[in-house]
Design goal:
CATH superfamily of the largest domain: Endonuclease/exonuclease/phosphatase
Order of helices and strands: EEHEEEEEEHEHEEHEEEHHHEH
Largest sheet: 7 strands, antiparallel
Shape: globular
CATH class of the largest domain: Alpha Beta
Number of helices: 8
Protein name: Endonuclease/exonuclease/phosphatase domain-containing protein
Organism: Oidiodendron maius (strain Zn)
Domain Endonuclease/exonuclease/phosphatase: 152-228
Structural class: alpha+beta
Pfam family, one: Exo_endo_phos_2
Number of strands: 15
GO molecular function, one term: catalytic activity
Strand content: 15-25%
Number of domains: 2
Strand order of the largest sheet: 6-7-8-1-9-11-10
């Protein structure tokens, strides 16, 4: 959720019904800096953030990803061949399902993400509001956002130059969006400025805004933009399993002899289903049933013979306290 009326970024969240799970979000413009990216990733580990919502990420030459981290996966906008200027890092320990929304446009400056738990969903819009990179079109607000209809469960991040501010204000009022920023709290600073500017804004529809907690600004991330950190409280019901995060097994420590024995035993118990593979009149339904039985047999054998790997936030092995101190000086 970033937003303002200059060259930067915006975030917006909307939902009719809230998730049962709480989530913590760090948003930051990283100014295409690799060191600032590493700093933000480590900060997210220390603060136990579930999502890092990034504008102006550092990306590799083919524009397919940013800096990798063992505790996060990356969600980028749909590619149109241009450098992505929005990105979301997702903690692998976060339980609800997070995915690129089907309504996310093929535009590097607008990334729409669905956060879903069971039948409940909220939507995140990550916007970098600037003229398109080939300079043939409008700014992101005009070409992508102002014509977009929002449901009541939306969270948005934005920043933009002052031209077109009236249109933005009209759009915000039409969707009943609430500004989350603390009045007067700056989000952007350079040594030649007399004081911090407010370039990065956060908006949310009322159901989400009512559950926002601890909105705050973080300095010393290594970018000329401060980070923004806040939490969205859930309804605290029982966790649901995320089908995108199946159990991982530590195969390096597996007891392969016991795995083989266990698999043969489980396979023997499933002979009725697996026996259909020898039938010459197979149907798709029978094949699916046999595949499911075989998968279950392998999973049971793996659980019996192999330790699982627990997902959790881990620092990179080379990160130390000296780097934590030095990151304050990398701007």
């Amino acid at each position: 959720m970033r937003g303002a009326t200059r060259n930067q970024t915006q975030g917006l969240c909307h939902a009719n019904v809230m998730l049962s799970s709480s989530l913590k979000i760090l948003q930051v413009n990283l100014n295409r800096s690799g060191p600032a990216t590493e700093s933000a990733l480590q900060t997210a580990i220390e603060l136990r953030a579930d999502l890092i919502v990034v504008q102006e990420p550092w990306v590799i030459r083919d524009n397919t990803r940013s800096i990798a981290h063992q505790s996060f996966t990356q969600i980028l906008p749909l590619s149109n061949g241009l450098r992505p200027r929005t990105l979301v890092y997702l903690s692998k320990a976060f339980r609800p399902l997070v995915s690129l929304a089907t309504t996310s446009p093929k535009d590097p400056d607008l990334l729409v993400v669905d956060i879903q738990e069971g039948s409940t969903k909220i939507q995140l819009l990550n916007v970098y509001n600037k003229a398109d990179q080939v300079r043939e079109g409008l700014r992101t607000l005009d070409r992508c956002l102002l014509r977009r209809h929002l449901s009541s469960n939306t969270w948005d991040q934005l920043a933009q130059e002052s031209p077109g501010a009236d249109q933005l204000i009209e759009w915000l009022e039409r969707h009943n969006l609430e500004l989350l920023n603390s009045p007067g709290t700056g989000t952007f600073f350079r040594p030649n400025l007399a004081r911090e500017s407010v370039l990065d804004l956060s908006f949310a529809t009322p159901p989400v805004a009512n559950r926002i907690q601890d909105w705050q600004v973080l300095s010393d991330l290594g970018s000329d933009h401060n980070g923004i950190l806040f939490s969205i409280s859930g309804t605290n019901r029982v966790w649901v399993d995320n089908p995108a995060q199946p159990t991982n097994f530590n195969t390096r420590l597996a007891n392969w002899e016991y795995f083989t024995t266990s698999l043969q035993s489980n396979k023997a118990q499933s002979e009725n289903q697996l026996g259909v593979l020898e039938d010459n009149t197979l149907t798709i339904a029978l094949l699916d049933m046999a595949a499911s039985e075989l998968t279950d047999a392998i999973t049971r054998a793996a659980k019996a013979s192999t330790l699982s790997i627990k997902s959790g936030a881990r620092s990179k092995p080379w990160w130390n306290n000296d780097l934590k101190s030095l990151r304050k000086t990398i701007i």
